[in-house]
Amino acid sequence: MIREKRIVDLPKSIFNELGWEYYISEDAKNYLANDLVRVSEKEADGFYRAGNALYPMLVDAAEYILRNDLLGTTGIPANLHQIIRYTWENDHHFHLFGRFDFAGGIDDLPVKLLEFNADTPTTLPETAVLQWLQLKANHMNEEAQMNFVYDALVENFKRLKNLNRNKDPFILFSTMFDAPEDNNNVALLMEAAYEAGFEVSFKSIEEVIFSESDGIFANNENGDPVNYPFWFKLIPWEYIAVDEPELAEILTKIVTAEKAVVLNPAYTMLFQSKAILKYLWELYPKNEYLLESDFKKLRNKTFVEKVVLGREGANVRIVDENGGVIEEEGGDYDDQLKVYQEYAPLAKDFRGNFYQAGVFFAYEACGLGFRRNNHKILNNSAQFVGHYID
Q1: d(Cα 369, Cα 367) in Å, to the nearest integer?
Q2: Which residue, among 50, 63, 39, 143, has the nearest Cα to 100 in the 3D structure?
Q3: CA angle 207, 121, 384 (to 5 degrees)
Q4: Cβ-Cβ contacts under 8 Å for 324 (sequence gap 6 or more)
Q5: Cα–Cα distance measured from residue 185 to residue 121, given in angstroms and rounded to the nearest whole number
Q6: How far apart are alpha carbons 264 and 157 in whole angstroms?
Q7: Distance of CA 89 to CAs 19, 93, 120, Å?
Q8: What is the structure's pLDDT at 160?
Q9: Residues 6 or more apart from 126 whose CB is under 8 A from it?
Q10: N or C: which end of the chain has fewer CB within 10 A?
Q11: In degrees rounded to 5, what are phi and psi of residue 341?
Q12: Contact 248, 79 (CB under 8 A)
């Protein structure tokens, strides 16, 4: 069973001071658990080693997909293929950060990759800041976490700047309008970018000006347009491709003409698509961190059916070895291509909650946090649970 420690809630004043009122809003009621998962040093090291081992394997799998003209099997919209190939081949389009989702790793269960959130991973404030503040507020050792996410982000922004020395270090951050949770994630990224030497600004995507000939702009406080050589968008690439195809075309022209660097780069869609699970297994069969995955249903074993670009557990089904549905989650993605992955049990607590580990990766594995739900399929109602190393 999961080993937990009950803690006192963070005072509301902390969220007000941080400007992260979302976490004390009605929408986020009970989202931050008042428990911490107890993790041993060996288990924490296991998560660290898993992330560091898997990222180069993802790079190999992405290269395999491109080299063998397999983009059409990934479910990635065709109007992103050109920008994906371009950014993959140019080192100055740098992957800032992603988040691995793992089964196991605690409760005597092996670490197993479920998927990699490479394009627009969230839970940054919870992992980097809030779970650390929970230790502090509860008079625990503040160093007793696998958590150097913020420092890793600062170093990656420095790497981004060094890879693009021909560009002024001005970066614009954007989310969709009225997206407070996303805004909190971006606020942390902006702080890290500023510490790394960037001048930072924020505009919702509805306020950003895109010019295929001149680049990306936003008006300053005087109403004058300012050019930004770097644009970070916490908006999924596939949403842009499907809902705003004209913008996808403009961004392709902007990026390929070297007018701006867009983050995370388009090639992260190769990692984001769960189709890569099939190619990982093909390239690294029997690897200790991988689960058998294929584009056809697995025989004689329990498997999970996933849509390749689904989010937050939508359109996921767990099917037993006889074809019976153990659990399923609805959603809006059922027309997508599907991948079938061997089922891996999640760790449980004595109340029957299931736990999924999230490990951030920014040049290296750098932060651990957990989400939990009373279902095997974790959806957008899951709680965030911090951890401590003991």
Answers
A1: 7
A2: 50
A3: 115
A4: none
A5: 9
A6: 12
A7: 39, 9, 21
A8: 98
A9: 32, 369, 384, 386
A10: N
A11: -120, 135
A12: yes
- 84 within some domain: yes
In sequence order, what are the beta bridge partners of 112? 103
Closest CA to 312 of 379, 242, 373: 379
Q: How many domains does the chain have?
A: 1
Give a yes or no: residue 254 inside a domain.
Answer: yes
Kindly tell me if the per-residue pLDDT of 73 is higher than 90: yes
The pLDDT tens digits of the residues spanning 176-189 come to 998 889 999 999 99
Angstrom distances, CA of residue 115 to CA of 34, 43, 58, 158, 347:
27, 19, 11, 27, 17
Phi and psi torsions of 27, nearest 5°: -65, -30
Q: Is 226 left (phi over 0), alpha (psi -120 to 50) or beta?
A: beta
Q: Model confidence over 78-122: pLDDT tens digits?
A: 999 999 999 999 999 999 999 999 999 998 999 999 999 999 999
Contact assessment for residue 66 and residue 288, using Cβ atoms and an 8 Å cutoff: no
Q: Residue range 172-200: average pLDDT?
A: 96
User: Domain of 128?
Assistant: 4-273+346-389
- Please write the tens of the pLDDT for every residue from 25-66: 998 889 999 999 999 999 999 999 999 999 999 999 999 999
Instruction: List the one residue out of 158, 154, 191, 150 whose CA is nearest residue 173.
Output: 191
Task: Let me know if residue 251 belongs to a domain.
Answer: yes
Residue 74 in tokens: 């990934």
3-state DSSP: the chain helix, strand, coil percent, rounded to 5? 35, 25, 40
Q: For the chain, what is the radius of gyration of the CA atoms?
A: 21
- Examine residue 158 and state whether it is found in any structural domain, yes or no: yes
